[in-house]
Amino acid sequence: MNILLIRLRLIGDVVFTTPVVRAxxxxxxxxxxxxxxxxDAAPIVAGNPHLDEVIVAPKSRGVQRLRDDLxxxxxxxxxxxxxxxxLHGGPRSSLLARASGAxxxxxxxxxxxxxxxxxxxHRRPGLHPRHSVVNQWDLLSAIEGWPGGDPDPSLDAVxxxxxxxxxxxxxxxxxxxGIGAEDALVVIHVSAGNPFRRWPEPAFIRxxxxxxxxxxxxxxxxxxxxxxxxxxxxxxxxxxxxxxGRAPQVPELGEFNLAELxxxxxxxxxxxxxxxxxxxxAATTMTPIVGIYGPTLAERSxxxxxxxxxxxxxxxxxxxxxxxxxxxxxxxxxxxxxxxTPEKVMAAAERAMKTPRSA
Length: 359
Prior knowledge:
Elements lengths: L1 E5 L4 H17 L4 E6 L4 H4 L7 E4 L5 H17 L4 E4 L4 H9 L4 E5 L10 E3 L10 H6 L26 H13 L7 E6 L11 H14 L3 E6 L5 H15 L14 H9 L3 E5 L2 H6 L6 E4 L5 H4 L9 E4 L20 H4 L3 H13 L5
């Protein structure tokens, strides 16, 4: 059987498909399994041991997008897929699923796009406390010959291969920065894809300073996306100023791509970040995680990982406007994030680092 899986973006959403990838390969071990993804999230599935091929869909616009998609459609049709599963459900992914020519095409019953599939699965609209992995798992039930079974993170956790060369490169960067094996690395990701998920800079500063002062062995490394590099620099500079003589506890290591971030988190004692792609990259490790949830629900997007790994979810209780669709802040003050105190996040961080790691 020749199978095509489609999830074009985003980073966290692509991470959430990796349990499905493993389960499909386990159910159909002789199948040739191909994954279609856009460039930004491609490092998540590059080198995945359960995939036979990764096709990267060009991320272009306008007339060039049309040209690229026509060429991509010809390539997909030439592959002669028996089955295409659209894990994305967007306009582009559904059209590409149809263009693949696979006689069996499975997707969600999204209004205006159901006709592009041969079989559809109902996706309940709205924001419900049901995990994204479970929602995507629903699509598997529509595959002819699917053996059934519920998703289980102890069996099918999220995954992302660790590149030994990248790991060695990150170790060299840490060594050059004077960070040794005896130091406790804490990675804090200060970026978010939209303002609805950005914890305020002063809160991050207090968190960095508090974690550093609590243990002189700690080295706090800040990571961010390209658009938030100035914010990360401001947070680091302010924290160093407050720490004075202990400023070296917040070293400058530069930026990390996704593969490097994975290697850095593997080496770390803790990862702290909002509900964004890097949080879910961190979930592919056994490193303790503290997730900061503003408008989103941990029940929907918590790390889907080995239950032996430590994961803490922090959010503001009792807000009637939470969760929201992240288009308009009804109160107007982003209170799901602005009222979340650094002390609450710090307490979760300390608990996570003190919890004994299971074998």
